[in-house]
Design a protein that fits this description.
Layout lengths: L26 H18 L5 H15 L1 H7 L2
Length: 74
């Protein structure tokens, strides 16, 4: 019997316009991103890969970063 997945910090993904960006990460980070993508799919019933999740993770991170918000306030 599988354990129910609790809500993840990153919720269901919105539909957005996008642009391509390439980056390099460690093997360990890629493994964690793939694992997160699998948990996200279990939690929300939509299969997504790590590359799809990364922009949403970064947006969530930046929105919660008080220093960034202060630095961009007019």
């Amino acid at each position: 019997m599988s354990t129910p997945i609790k809500k993840l910090r990153l919720g269901p993904l919105p539909k957005t316009e996008s642009t391509k960006l390439t980056f390099v990460c460690s093997v360990g980070l890629k493994t964690d991103l793939d694992r997160y993508a699998a948990l996200h799919a279990q939690a929300y019933g939509e299969v997504v890969d790590a590359a799809t999740l990364i922009p949403h993770m970064l947006e969530t991170f930046m929105a919660a970063d008080r220093g960034f918000k202060k630095g961009t306030a007019s």
